[in-house]
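Contributing: when you submit paired examples, paste them exactly as shown. First protein:
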Amino acid sequence: MSVDFIARLVGMITFSIIGVYWGTYLGRLANTTTGPFPFTVEQYAFTIGMVGALAGLILTPFITTRPIKALRAQLSRLSARSLFASLVGLVVGLVIAALLAFPLSLLPDPFGQILPFFGVVLFGYLGVAVFIVRQDDMFNILQGMRGGAPAVQPEAEGGSNWGEGRTILLDTSVIIDGRIADIARTGFLPGSLLIPRFVLTELQYIADSSDSLRRQRGRRGMEVLAQLQREPSIPVRITDIDVEGTRDVDDKLVILARQMRCPILTNDFNLNRVAELQGVTILNINELANAVKSVLLPGEMLSVRVIQEGKEAGQGVGYMEDGTMVVVENGREYIDREINVLVTKVLQTAAGRMIFARPDRD
C-alpha cells in the first residue's frame, strides 16, 4: 500500500470520529429545545460521522502527503550549498529577532504584542534571502579561513588544487562517446564528475534496447563509466538528485546545472544550444578535439599517406594523426604511398579543419 492510501485511511477514521462526537453534541443540543425534531442524537452522530469520513478520505492527502511531497521536491532542487546557506541565514535572522524581541515587547499595546512576532518573520526572511544571495562569498571566506589563504589562490604544492570543489555534470552522450575517460585521466578536468541517477537510467535503457547498435552504444557507456570509477585520480559521484516537472533528460540536466551553478560536459549539439540560451556553461568534447588539432599555415611542409581518391579529378585524400583531412592536388598517382606535401590552404568548417596541399616536387 502506498503512503497516500494509508494517509487517506487514517484521515477517514480520524474525521469520522470527530464527526461522530460533533454530531452527538449537535443532536443533544437540538433535542434539548422544545419542538418536534425529525432526527435523533444517533442519527445526527451517524450522518455527520459519515460526512467526516468522506471528507477525511478526500481531503487528507491535501493536508498531509501532498505538502510533504511538494516540500521534498523543492528541497531536491536546491543544491547542498544553497540549503546550508539558507539554514545559516535563518539561524542568524532568528538570533537577531530574539535579541530584539524583549525591547519590542516593552512597547505599549498593541505594538508590544505584534512587533516581536513580526520581527521573527521579517528577520528570518531577510537572513535566508541575504545568505542565499551572498552564498558564494560566504563559502569563499570559509575556504580561505580553512586553507589559510584566499580561496581563489592555489595552495602550496601537495595541497588541494584550485578545482577541488568544482563539479561537472556528465551527459549520457559524453559517457557513450568514451573519450571522457582519456581526457579525465590527463587531469584537464579539475573537480569531481557528477552523474545524476536519471542519466544512469537513460544509459541503462539504451543498453537494454532491442536495436543492436543502440544496445552496443549503451553497453560501451556502461564500460566507460566503470572505467572512470576504477580510476583513483578521477573523483566520480552518482547523485539521486532529481528534477520535478519534466521528464526529458536534457531539460533536467540544464535545470540542475543552473541550480548547482556548474557546467555540463557533453557532445550533444542540441543540448549545447539549449544550455547556452539559458546561461549554462557547456564543455563540448567536439570543440575541444577541434581546438587541439595541429595548426598548419600555408607554405608549411608535412608528411601524409594518401589512402584514397578525392572528389575532384586527380585528387588524393590522406589523414593526419589527429584525424584532420588532407586533400592533395594531383595526389591520385600517390595512393598507398607516404609523401611530403606543401600546404596551400587551410579551411575551417563546421565538421572540422580541412587542409589542401600539393605534392612537394623538390
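Second protein:
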Amino acid sequence: MNYIKLVKNAIGGSVLAFIFSLNVNAAEKVNVGICVSWPGYAMLKIAEEAGLSPDLEYNFTLFEDPIGGHLATAAGQIDVYMCTGDYTPLIAERGTPVVNVAFTNPSYGVDHIIFSPDVTAENIKGQKVAAPQAYIGHLLMGLMLEKIDVAPDDVEWVNLNADEAVGPMMSGDLAAAYLYEPWISKVLANREGAYSAIHTANPEMLETGIFMDVIYMNKNFIESRRQTAIDVLKARWDAVQYWHDNTEQANKMFAEFLQWPEEDIGYVIGTNGKFFDGGIYMYDFDETARVCGALEGEPPFGLKNGSMVDVVTFINEWWVKLGLMDKVVDSSSAVDCSLVNDLLNSGYRQSISAKE
C-alpha cells in the first residue's frame, strides 16, 4: 500500500514537474507582419532560423499589401509590422494605435523612376506616370517631377505597383513608372531607349531620409508587453549581426522564406553584410539609435541626429503636395524611440561595416 502511494506521489510529482517545465519553457508568441516579400523585412525570420530568440515564437504574415498590413496592425491582429516609413504621417493624422519605433534601412538605389524612350522633362506634361499610391514610389515620382519643374497635376497618375507597370511600360502606354529590380532590368533590356531618370542612391534623395524601411508596433502590444517589444528589437538586430557574420547562409534563409531565387536576394541586400549599391543599406543598431536621438553621433547619408520626426514631417508635406493629405500634422504621436532607448540603456551596442 505504501509502495502504491509512493508510486502515485512520484507520478504526480513528475506530472507537476512536466507541466511546470512546459510553462517555464513556453515561448512567447509575437504576430509579425511583413508588408511585401522583401529581404529587409525578414530579419526576424533569420532570428528564428538561427535560434537567436528562443523565448519568442514568431507568427509571420506576408501581406503583399502594405495598406492591409497597416489595418491589421491598427486592429491588434499584428504586433510588429515591417514596412516602409511613408505611412507614418497617416497614422498620426488618423490617431490609430500604432507607432514607428525604429528606422532599419534606407533604399540605396533599388528604387528608380524609369522614363520611356523619347520622354523628357520638356514633353512629359499631360502623359501617364505610374506609381503605387501612398507608397515610396509615389514620393519618388513626386520628387522627380519637382526636380524637372513639373507639377503633380501636370501629369496623369496611374496607381500601379512595379510588377504591374512593366507591361504598360513595354507597350508604350506609360511615359514613366516607378520600378525596382528585377523589373528595372526587364524594361531596360527589352525597351530600347528607356532610361533611369532618378533613383534613391542619388545623394539628394538619401539626404531626405524618406525612402526608409521601418518597424511599426501596435501601441497596446508595447503597453502590455513592453519587455517583449524590447526583446523583439534585440532579436532583430541580433539577426543583422548574424547576417553580417554569415551572409551566405542568411541569404539562403531569406530566399527560402520569401520564395526568391537566391541570386536575387544578393542583388537587393548584398553579400558583404552591410549594403548593396543599387539595393538597400542595412543600419546597424548604433545607426538606428542615432537617428532616434538616443546615441550621440550622426546617422549615415546626411541625416541629423534625432531626425525621425523631421523625416516623417517631410513625408507629410509631400503627401499634402500630392493630394493624399490635407494638412501637415504633429507626427510626434506616431513615433516612439523609447524602446530603442531602453535597449541602448541596457548596454546593447552594435556597429558593423561591409566585409571585404
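If you have annotations for the second protein, write them as plain sentences, like these:
The chain has a mean pLDDT of 93.
The first strand starts at residue 28 and ends at 34.
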